[in-house]
From TrEMBL:
The keyword tRNA processing does not apply. Pfam families: 5-FTHF_cyc-lig. It comes from Herbiconiux moechotypicola. It catalyses: (6S)-5-formyl-5,6,7,8-tetrahydrofolate + ATP = (6R)-5,10-methenyltetrahydrofolate + ADP + phosphate. This is 5-formyltetrahydrofolate cyclo-ligase. Belongs to the 5-formyltetrahydrofolate cyclo-ligase family. The keyword Transmembrane helix does not apply. Its EC number is 6.3.3.2.
Length: 195
């Protein structure tokens, strides 16, 4: 059973990765504008003063315009740094100054705050390859955000960022997969309810 779910997730990730790779640039640009607008709307609605977000890779929806807005608006931004042991450290970032980290992922340049810094967040924005309307999120397979969210005693609202066609009727789920409260897409903010 677990092997079947794991296989289903790998196959779906490969399909979604290819879809992202072949998405036309003008479609991505328009999508990024909508995502930025909805992330700002979500942060404003939740009155999040400390926001945990991520530095997007080249194939993910672009989070940098949102990060620039958050910093210009006086909000504190926590950005993840992947560790070899499977945990995430955090650093305050400016959304622009970055280096290449583990797995070639972009990470902030600055003082490391350690794994528990995430507990200061009022809103957590995380990457995803897909979500479903039950709040099941599928990441890219390394489990960093699942471990982080699973270890938090009091977790603030968590929203995944995906393209519209990545909100699916059902996403394969394993026991360790953390649920999300909603998703931000180019055209809407979805609220799935509390985990």
């Amino acid at each position: 059973m677990a092997a079947d779910v794991s296989y289903d997730k790998r196959a779906l990730r490969a399909e979604l990765r290819e879809r992202r790779r072949t998405r036309p640039a003008h479609v991505v640009d328009t999508a990024n504008e909508g995502i930025t607008k909805h992330l700002i709307e979500l942060a404003t609605q939740t009155d999040a003063r400390t926001i945990s977000c991520y530095l997007s890779t080249s194939f993910e929806p672009n989070t940098r315009p949102f990060l620039n807005w958050a910093l210009a608006d006086g909000r504190r931004v926590l950005l993840p740094i992947a560790r070899q042991d499977g945990l995430l450290d955090w650093a305050e970032g400016d959304g622009e100054t970055e280096t290449e980290g583990l797995y070639g992922l972009p990470e902030p340049v600055g003082g490391i705050l350690g794994p528990i810094a995430i507990n200061d967040a009022d809103l957590i924005i995380i990457p995803a390859s897909a979500v479903d309307e039950r709040g099941t999120r599928m990441g890219w397979g390394r489990g960093y955000f699942d471990r982080t969210l699973g270890s938090m005693e009091k977790c603030p609202p968590v929203y995944a960022v995906v393209f519209d066609d990545e909100v699916l009727p059902e996403v394969p789920r394993e026991v360790h997969d953390a649920l999300v409260d909603g998703a931000v897409t180019p055209t809407r903010i979805l609220h799935f309810g509390r985990r």
